[in-house]
Predict the structure.
Amino acid sequence: MSKADIEVTNAAATATDAAAAAAVSASRKRTRALQVALCAILDVITGVMSVGFAPVPQQTADFFTTSLSGINYMAIVYTFMFIPGAIFSSKVLDDHGPRASLIIGAVLQVIGSLAKYLATLAPAPASLGIAYVGQVFNGLGQPFVLNAPTKIAGIWFGSHERGLPNAIMSVCNSFGSFVGYLIGPLIVTTVADIPTYALVQTIMMAVVTIPTIFFARNPPELAERFAFKKEKDPAKRNNWGLTLLDVRILFSVPEYAKMTICFTVAIGLFTAMGTLLTQFILAYGYTEIDGSICAALLIVIGTISAGLSGWFIDRTFKHLLVLKSGYTSTVLMYAFFAIVACIPGIMPAVAISCALLGIASFIMLPAALELGAAVGKLDVKEVVIKHRERFESKTPNEHQKLQLDAIAEHGMEEGVTSGVMWLLAQGMSMILILVLDAINSSNADRRIGVRASVWTMTAVSAIGCVVIWLFPSAKGMERVRAGMLELKGEEKSSA
């Protein structure tokens, strides 16, 4: 074969390889777009499931022959099951990727929604118990879906591409809650419509679960990455996600403790508000459709404000300004809602108060989570290096030593810092729903109970406001800023 023939053959081979690479790249882009779409749709339906019967509390209570407290306890069961679900979902995501997590979350929620539909066909009092079982499965399944967007964005997209798909998937859950609050009153006009409402939720969940099972994928390189990580870091072999040691270390840092208290109060109040909002305004002559509109404004406007806040702090580093202004505004907005919600016939003012409350509550989300990650990156690492003996047990095992070594070298992972904050916020919401429900049910006149409840929420919100004003001085914030820059530097270096 002549030299010219060899060159022609090599050129043809190169062109073939380039065409194959382009085909693979195009195929990967289509696959990852499909993964984002599947997760986004599943997040929407998960948001609908999280709302449950909250948009139509009175008809639901009448159908199951129980009190409003019995319906409120459904929300508490759902929230409580988020805690074990979050722990195990982190394990599944770390060891098996988002495909397994999405499928588990979808199947659990199908079981839960089907159980709630079957509850509407069963005789009382068994029907209410079956509905509670459905809430258990729905609550367990939620975090398997909610925790997946960040992982999907991280493994399918480059570091400069992750923001948009992550935002799309994450916002879809709030949009689902918005949809849930709208369709509830539209379907349920009488008590007899409750089975239809439960059936619609079951069908929605089943329809999105089928394509998730057949089309959810992990990238091919993920299995190799997991195997390498386990070989490189033996501490990962027996990792069951969040541990008590992680919590102890994090709360040994005062700045993280203060930040978590503020975050827990704000999100706990917001969750309780979303659950009880319709019941609050029903007492003053408003309708369940009015309640759904207010809840939709609370969620949608709040989500938009969180996105704008993230864009602002990314460019200005004004985290403390956002937090202090956000928490101060939250107290004022709860007070504003407490005033207008207890006056019949001024629906526009109630709706405006809910929209403003959504802005004040959500505007601090990106700042709080990013500050938590920065503290975990610098201060936690320093605490473990200086006071390691404080965290070691009397007979430390190999796994604990490896875990402390990893924290001393790299700091706490962002998923752990934010995970602790979200878990405690869920616990706070359960306590608040129980307390507010007890206040409501302790008064024969529901209006008195509602008035006491909304002013109790205003008082609780003031706790977060006081704590945030005790946050670090300018010198302390310089350390936090350094931690953020270190995080961003690591992202750039890994890109």
